[in-house]
Structure formats: C-alpha cells, structure tokens
Write a structure and sequence with these properties.
two-stranded antiparallel sheet, 4-stranded parallel beta sheet, about 260 residues, 9 helices, about 50% helix, binds zinc ion
Length: about 260
C-alpha cells in the first residue's frame, strides 16, 4: 500500500495542512467505498481500501493534491442479504458527501475530486453532484461517474493476461487481484470461485439493483475470482489510476477554458 504522511489529511497536523494549502496544494481527492460482502474470499472493506489506494495514487499523480479520508460506508442495499454488509440510504450518503465537500471548501481547497470505488455509489454520486457543487461554493467539484470505464479497464488489463472473460465487476478476478496486491493476508485465496458469469451488461446491472445480488449470485461474485494474482491486481490499480488522472485533468481543463 502507498503511504505518505504528507499526503493524507488524517495523518497531518493542522499547520501542515495550512502550509500545504499555502504552497498551492489546493486540490483534494477522496474516495467513497463500501463495507459490503465480496464473495466468500474477500474482506468486507474491499471497496473502501481500494478507494483509499486509488485516491492516494491519484493525488500523487496530480501533484498539487492532498487526500481526504475515504467515505468507507456507501449505498449497498443490493448486498444486504449477506451478513456484515452496512448500507447508507442514498439521502444519508449524499448528506455525508455534502458535509465533506463543504468542510473541505471552507479550508480553501479549490478543486475537490471524488472517486466512487463501489459500483453502487456511482448513481448516488451523480445524483448528488448539483448539491455538492452548491455546497462547495467557489470550489470546483469533479466526480468520476463512469462505471463502465472501470469495468472496461479491468477487462482490458485482465485480457492482456488472457483472463478478461472472468471480469464482471464484483469480487471477480480483477477485484480479487487488487485485494491480493493490497492485503494479501486478508484474501482467502482457497475460497476464490466462480460466480454469475459476465459480461456486466446494462440488463445485469438493472437486475442487480432491483433484485439484489443474492438472487443473481448466491456466493456474491459477479464473474470468476479463480486465477487471481497480485501482479494482475497491481496492473489493474495502475491502469485505473491512469484513467482517473486523465479524467480529472480533462474535466479541470474544461472548467478553466470555460472560465
Ligand atoms: Zn467491490
């Protein structure tokens, strides 16, 4: 895992945060993950930990950014049939994001980048964006809202190793490999198995959110987790960081050119 005590707000003192802002580090990045079931082999904090790693790496790439704490619990109603999952109602989740953004903007951050690292948070973040932008006042809120781009990135990277068809978006070979790279001690590799086969079509996403995960995949996996490797996980993280950084740079330059 990436770790830098001058990068993460939670690990810094207030004079350090002030000095960073004064030095022009006026972008802040945070992820919104989940605490929810991820098959019989991955820990419940998979999306939260993945989000934290993505936000640290994206902030380092952007260069002028700090990292705010990951919103660790998200919208996971479709996983509630599995023990341990904790879910926020969409209105609660949106209110948490609003208060995050408002707090960060008050300290002088000028650009706030939001990374949903859980599929179920993408639509709620998209819906909340107008409210977040209003709460941020003059600061610019940019949210990555392209869930298919995440899946496509995983399919592409796994495809390079000949296992692209095992990716379907939840506790599959890509996500399991990401966790193996980040927390090898917490992945029950011997329990990695196949779930509902991919690909993740819009129809499957619709069924997931209306019927819940257990009706589709009793073991909680979309895709196939078998064959996971830390190497694939690292490649998936790097590729997704590239996608995210390009997105935030593009969105920010559009704002600048409009202004
Ligand atoms: Zn996940």
């Amino acid at each position: 895992m990436t770790s830098d005590p001058t990068l993460e707000l939670e690990r810094m003192t207030w004079p350090e945060v002030r000095a960073a802002l004064d030095a022009g580090r006026t972008t802040v990045v945070f992820a919104c993950g989940a605490v929810e079931q991820h098959g019989p082999h991955l820990p419940l904090f998979t999306d939260a930990e993945h989000g934290s790693e993505l936000s640290r790496r994206v902030a380092m790439e952007l260069g002028d950014a700090l990292v705010a704490p990951t919103v660790r619990v998200g919208c996971s109603e479709h996983h509630m049939a599995f023990p341990g999952t904790i879910s926020l109602e969409e209105s609660t989740f949106a209110a948490v994001l609003r208060d995050y953004v408002r707090s960060l903007a008050r300290h002088g951050f000028e650009r706030i980048c939001v990374i949903p690292s859980h599929g179920g948070n993408f639509a709620p973040v998209t819906h909340a964006l107008p409210m977040l932008r209003e709460a941020a006042g003059g600061a610019h809120v940019v949210a990555f809202t392209d869930l298919p781009a995440v899946i496509n990135t995983w399919v592409r990277v796994a495809g390079e190793l000949g296992v692209g068809e095992r990716v379907a978006g939840h506790a599959d070979i890509a996500e399991s490999s990401v966790m193996l790279a980040l927390h090898p001690d917490l992945v029950r590799t011997e329990a990695a198995e196949a779930g509902h086969p991919g690909p993740l079509t819009p129809e499957l996403v619709e069924r997931l959110f209306t019927h819940g995960m257990r009706a589709i995949a009793p073991n909680g996996i979309l895709g196939d987790a078998r064959g996971l490797s830390a190497e694939l996980g690292e490649r998936c993280i790097e590729a997704l960081v590239d996608v995210l950084v390009a997105y935030f740079r593009r969105e920010s330059s559009e704002v600048t050119s409009v202004a």
